[in-house]
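Entry 12.
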Amino acid sequence: MTNEQRIVLVTGAGSGIGRATARAFAEQGARVVAVGRGRGRLEATADQHKGIDVLVGDVAVDGGPEWIVAAVTERYGRLDVLVNNAAVVRSSPLGQLRREAVAEQLATNLVGPAMLTSAALPLLAAARGVVVNVSTSIGQRGWPGSSVYAATKAGLDTLTRSWAVELAPQGVRVVAVAPGAIETPIVRDLGPEQLAALRARQLAHTPAGRLGRPREVAWAITQLADPAAEFVTGVVLPVDGGAVVA
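Predicted 3D structure (tokens):
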């Protein structure tokens, strides 16, 4: 399949990496289904970008993944690329964990991608498609204060490798990108002082000396999903300015 013919589903497409990824695929000529919980943010993603369709949905709710896949099936009848990007961060030190915050992160960051990929598998197998999971480089190292978030992403890395082996006989590739410190609104729940401290800590661990940009992660996602990368599967690619190897 060429880029112009592909149907691409991107979750968490209302901001940050998801928005940049939806636009990057659309600029290649793909038809993109931008999924998220806020219609206004999704419409902002699609604004002036031909080829992006908005679909309001939530991968974290019971039946949400199946509903999303049913909508894509009804509209297009196929799916070539699934980008599992939706995620939430609820930073908290260990002694202050709240059960609802832990459950929310597990539901969105780990259970949601698993159920969505499972529901989409018939379409992906028919298209010999690609799954791209958006992980994080902090899943590969200690990250105090966000241990549950890091654990969910480390779990997503494991799913990536396991699915790559399991789905290879069906012609489905599974890959992941592991962003480092990226300038996105995912940590918008932090106060100004907390955010400044987080950014300082991230920069101290980033040899490149700056925050990454969403479009740089989107570039990696589109490259891994490209038909020319058909021999690449099971990889978790850091896009983190060297943070993992520092």
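Annotation: The chain has seven helices and seven strands. The first strand starts at residue 7 and ends at 11.
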